[in-house]
Write a structure and sequence with these properties.
The chain is mainly β. Helix content is about 15%, strand content about 35%. The protein has one helix and five strands.
């Protein structure tokens, strides 16, 4: 049985920040907040990886927001 070293807290981070990217919706998608259809216009796509203990697959959390919803999200988030 081998041993590997990792810095303390490396697996169990509580980083809840989303990584946001501005994109153009060539294909239709639904907003995560209002369930509006987003198509042929700019929108914001946010994602983050949630890592579990060693041996489990990571989970990708995704969100789609319209321009107005993204501005509201930025104003109300910490």
């Amino acid at each position: 049985m081998g041993a590997s070293w990792a810095p303390p807290g490396w697996f169990w981070t509580n980083d809840s920040r989303l990584i946001w990217r501005e994109r153009f919706a060539w294909l239709p998608c639904r907003s995560s907040e209002s369930n509006q259809r987003i198509w042929l216009k700019k929108h914001w796509y946010g994602y983050r990886w949630i890592d579990g203990p060693a041996g489990e697959d990571p989970i990708k959390s995704e969100r789609w927001l319209t321009e107005e919803e993204y501005v509201w999200y930025q104003l109300t988030s910490e």
